[in-house]
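Following the same procedure, sequence and fold were stored together, as reproduced here.

>
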Amino acid sequence: MPKRLLVPLLILLASASANAAGEFYCCQDPSSGRRVCGDSLPEQCRGRAYRLLDSGGNIIKEVGPPLSPEEKAELALENKRKKQLEEASREQRRKDQALLDTYTTAQDIDQAQRKAETDVNLAMQDTQAHIADTRVKRKKFEEEAEFYKKKALPADLEKNLRALDHEIKVQQELLAVKKGEFDQIKAKYDADRKRYFELTGRAPKATPPAGTAPRQ
């Protein structure tokens, strides 16, 4: 073979070999119903499902058709749900680690609960004592008001009675809040205790320690 013909032939064979070792894009042509393939994405495949094949005809990747607006909305919603679940899972892991860092044993939880309940009980006792003192003061003004049954009360006396009534009301509302705090403390430490046993795999006591009842 003449040398001048040998070089173009080698180039042609190298090109054919490169194509044989390459990848091909194939899809179904909707107009003809026939398969269309190319070493780059054929025009008929744009905006449609297609397959990426190797030189042996094996499927490397399948690409589905473009999503409809409804499918895009559903996908966005699903991605949002997954993100929320991931964030919730991270937050739960953070709380679990904080729980294990705070309590070395279940007895630590019991001790923390007793302290919190004791603090609330002391605050409730202080509030109840304040209410009792205020009622004693009001009793003195009530006795003074007895002299004015058929007369208008002096302005100062009426003002003092109103102020003391308001003070008693405020302290009673504070007492109700403290009782609510006691219930919240019990719920919190019951939940901490339950989660601690779940995380550590340690069996809880047969009868978990009951919270200290608030004093009346």
The two ends are 115 Å apart (CA to CA). Residues 2-20 have pLDDT under 50 and may be disordered.
